[in-house]
């Protein structure tokens, strides 16, 4: 399959911006997935822009600011006007790369955005969102603080990440929320029960991350691959011995369906997410131009009812082995309660 120079477009929720039907998640270019090539990261962002990608997702804690500065370098000149920049904030890190909770206090929100604007070299952030719910701060206070930033022109739209249906309702009552960023894939389908219907009722879009489950269902994972110490998949339950072997067996079943459609496993998995509704924008975490070039055709891959049935048979929702995060991290997710 070949790429198209112009991707289809979708709108983030009822009140958000129009964006490309696939977005690019930038985390892996700076953090958590082992060594990354900075020059290749910039080149991949440039290639994405040329192919019509407009949505770029980062976080102020990705590489402790490195990822925002990488995006700044990639968007120098007139490229910034072609990008919708989505930023997550609030996750606290230490010099060793550890995690120290979430800070969503209003005064912290304004501090975080000031630093992000400087690192990004921009006058505004298109979509700004807390990375996780802070259990010590009412969501109304956090959204209210971002709403003040919207009024001041520093932020254009408000999003959320990994929150449950009740939190969505409370946030929407304060200010329009354009999208919920949350994990959604063939093997991570928890949002289908209550969160997705609530988002649709409220006119809130979904930006789906983890659509390839961190490479697990990309079709490229090698059973004997050794992970480096700075790759967090080394502590991910789905990559543990036993679980990994069972999950990769599911991928081989999916490969048969993909090949029948003349697609790769990754393209089929991404297209499945996109097929769940026009209010969903998959984020692909491509770190290289080669992986980006493979992912982009998924935006134009139309799946028939027969295709969807075959995919479901190959990779049933309940067949995955292991949770999407380690137990301690799952406890911190408002979306899981």
Automatic annotation (TrEMBL):
- What one GO molecular function would you report for this record? oxidoreductase activity
Gene3D superfamilies xref list? NADP-dependent oxidoreductase domain
Superkingdom, taxonomy of origin: Bacteria
Cross-referenced Pfam families, in alphabetical order?
Aldo_ket_red
GO CC, alphabetical:
cytoplasm
The record places domain NADP-dependent oxidoreductase at 22-314
Q: Which InterPro entries match?
A: Aldo-Keto_reductase, NAD(P)_OxRdtase_dom_sf, NADP_OxRdtase_dom
Which key words tag this protein in UniProt? Oxidoreductase
PANTHER family of this UniProt entry?
AFLATOXIN B1 ALDEHYDE REDUCTASE, ALDO-KETO REDUCTASE YAKC [NADP(+)]
Question: What protein am I looking at?
Answer: Aryl-alcohol dehydrogenase-like predicted oxidoreductase
Q: Which organism is it from?
A: Saccharothrix australiensis
Q: What is the lineage of its organism?
A: Bacteria, Bacillati, Actinomycetota, Actinomycetes, Pseudonocardiales
């Amino acid at each position: 399959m070949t790429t198209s120079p112009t991707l289809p477009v979708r709108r983030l929720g009822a009140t958000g911006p129009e964006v490309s039907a696939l977005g690019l998640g930038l985390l892996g270019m700076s953090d958590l997935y082992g060594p990354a090539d900075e020059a290749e990261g910039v080149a991949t962002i440039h290639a994405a822009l040329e192919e019509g990608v407009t949505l770029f997702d980062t976080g102020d804690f990705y590489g402790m600011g490195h990822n925002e500065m990488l995006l700044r370098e990639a968007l120098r000149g007139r490229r910034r006007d072609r990008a919708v920049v989505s930023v997550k904030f609030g996750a606290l890190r230490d010099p060793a790369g550890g995690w120290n909770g979430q800070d969503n206090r209003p005064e912290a929100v304004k501090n975080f955005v000031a630093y992000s604007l400087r690192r990004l070299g921009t006058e505004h952030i298109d979509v700004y969102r807390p990375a996780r719910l802070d259990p010590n701060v009412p969501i109304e206070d956090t959204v209210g603080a971002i709403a003040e930033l919207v009024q001041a022109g520093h932020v254009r739209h408000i999003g959320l990440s990994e929150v449950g249906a009740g939190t969505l309702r409370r946030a929407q009552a304060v200010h329009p929320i354009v999208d919920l960023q949350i994990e959604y894939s063939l093997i991570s389908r928890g949002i289908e029960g209550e969160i997705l219907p609530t988002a649709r009722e409220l006119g809130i879009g979904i930006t789906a991350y983890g659509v390839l489950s961190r490479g697990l269902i990309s079709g490229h994972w090698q059973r004997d691959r050794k992970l480096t110490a700075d790759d967090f998949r080394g502590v991910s339950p789905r990559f543990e011995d036993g679980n990994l072997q069972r999950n990769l067996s599911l991928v081989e079943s999916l490969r048969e369906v993909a090949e029948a459609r003349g697609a790769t496993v990754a393209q089929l998995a991404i297209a499945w997410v996109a097929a769940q509704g026009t209010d969903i924008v998959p984020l692909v975490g491509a770190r290289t131009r080669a992986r980006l070039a493979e992912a982009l055709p998924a935006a134009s891959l139309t799946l028939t009812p027969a295709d969807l049935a075959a995919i479901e048979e190959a990779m049933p929702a309940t067949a995955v082995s292991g949770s999407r995060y380690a137990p301690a991290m799952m406890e911190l997710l408002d979306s899981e309660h």
